[in-house]
């Protein structure tokens, strides 16, 4: 095994997150390690009486379930094994808590989200994960072709944002 044994990839179904997953698959093959793809359904904070949907939670979960299905297909095409996990909660905290609880070595994310406010505040979840996580975080830009990702694998320790100090959660 290489430097990483367990990789956590945040997936929301966006082009950016699925591209990051492709890169993580190539890295996992190179490192001979495990991948877990996590999709986090954010909490609904609106007035349920104003929503014309009978089952709000099911409606909110559906795009994330589709994202995880796409993640499984991509991993299979790339020749990697992925364990899909669907969680509920604040995306940044859920991702960092899962990374800590299951002792992941690396979190891989895309730069832009797809859902809700993340679309307006480009990369807000990514930025908060970087700020709160004590794990290595690799951000895969869409501009990096995934077929070339494995060419960068040997130099990844220099590309990672590594936590050198403890920072309190805000």
Mean pLDDT metric: 80
CATH architecture: 3-Layer(aba) Sandwich
Largest sheet: 5 strands, parallel
Report how far apart the termini are.
36 Å
- Given helix and strand content, the structural type is alpha/beta
CATH uppermost class: Alpha Beta
Helix content: 40-55%
Q: How many discrete structural domains?
A: 1
Major sheet strand order: 3-2-1-4-5
Q: How many DSSP-defined strands? A: 5
CATH topology name, in short, is Rossmann fold
**Oligomer designation:** single chain
Query: Any idea what the radius of gyration is?
Result: 16 Å
Range of strand content: 15-25%
Q: Which stretches are poorly predicted, pLDDT < 50 over at least 5 residues?
A: 117-122, 161-170
SSE string:
EHEHEHEHHEHH
Broad shape: globular
* Count of alpha and pi helical runs: 7
